[in-house]
Amino acid sequence: MAVQEKVRRILGQMGRGVYEKEEAIRLSLLSALAGESIFLLGPPGVAKSLIARKLKFAFRHGKSFEYLMNKFSTPDEVFGPVSIRKLKEEDKYERLTDKYLPGANVVFLDELWKAGPSIQNALLTVLNEKIYRNGEQEIRVNIKGIIAASNELPGGHEGLDALWDRFLVRYLITEIRNAGNFVGMIVSTEDVYEDNIADDCKIDEAELAAWERAMDEVTVPPEVINVIQMVKYQLDQYDQTHEAEKFAVYDRRWKKVVRLLRASAFLNDRTKVDLMDCFLMVHCLWNKPEQLEIAREMVAETIRKHGYTTALNLTALKQEIRDFEEDVTRETRLPNVVVAEQLMPIERDYYEVSNISQYFDGNRVKRAEYDKLLLDEDLAVSLYDATGNLTNKVKARKSRNPNEVMVTWNSKTYTFPMRTVKAEKIEIIYKKPHPVVYQYYAERARKLEGYLAGQGEMAKENAPAELRNLRTNLFVEPHLADLVEANLNEALKTLQSLALKVEKIRFSYESLMEK
Do residues 398 and 435 both lie within one domain? Predict the structure, then answer.
């Protein structure tokens, strides 16, 4: 069974009977297989411990350890009691660890920040180096994943920052939001704590060791390194201006981030990291929930702008189409200067009605009112005198003869010319192209359209191989592939726009030939 198919089946079986926790389950399994730890931030009763128990079942002969921390917790309760026999017979201070944290494969620590310094300090080496110091000896623990949880973040106490930094993946987990899922959860009688992972899907020690070696062989291509560097630069710039809200992501965390991306690539049956894997960085960067959206936007925008590119160079093609359009315009559109009567504004806001003074005191109408007049319907119009005073209100409409107005007064209709001035304006005279020129244009348009269609097909066929399976990533939402494809899609949209422009040019001269 391929690695991706096996992991897909494990995730499907882990998620059975659990609602709206798919992403948390995916990230928990990924972090465990990458040898990293995850912190779940959320209120009590939202399936944090359930995820840890589900994770245990993914490993053959998996053993789990769960503990709810409080300020009275002792190292004996977490790491095991001191061996009295060793102390008496050998004068050695060692713990019996088999049924405690050092002897487990999957560890769930609830309310971690309530533990005392002695527990937290011992956890540092377990989290970072997978080593537990038991008396005089250092024991390499076989812990696949540590899941810590709390409904709060660590305070500003000394020592907690180091422990907090050891959790590479951070995730906000919430209650069920969808009404249908909520009803499904409360009426379900399925035992969600049951081991429902098929035996052939469980991961054994030898298999996991082989996977870990293969993850180290996964390559990180230049486009991924570029995205990571750009995100790091943006975070550094943000930190310089937000002293109290720093992301504070340093070298060790970046190295672990790359390890997580390598793990994602391998578990998706790839030999190199791609840009879809890069979206996982979002869960590794924030320190406070309010930073999550900032990190998500930074990563998404960086991937969109600096992602995969196509080999298309459209600059010369755009210029050729502009030249074609100019040639057709010069041949088929001849500018002709004519002298015509135009309405002459008075004091910018008025038009003058000639010969109306013999009937009314005012001889001016506001330009705005005149422009609204219709041909077949009378509208109310105000007349003003030279000083701007309102003198009359009449009903008027435009005449079918230009620059005339028809005024209705006492059931009679009078036609008055508007005051005009002679002015030059340019009219376009459309001319059929010569048949020889027409054939030249037709051939030119045909070649351009063929070339554009060919470029579109070439862009799709020669697109980077990484673009072909973006939506099959087990750990990243498929819709994020739209951002990875942005550069290619923008190139294709540009080709479509240019093809439409050529079509309009062709229509402009073909329509003249039909007249």
Answer: no
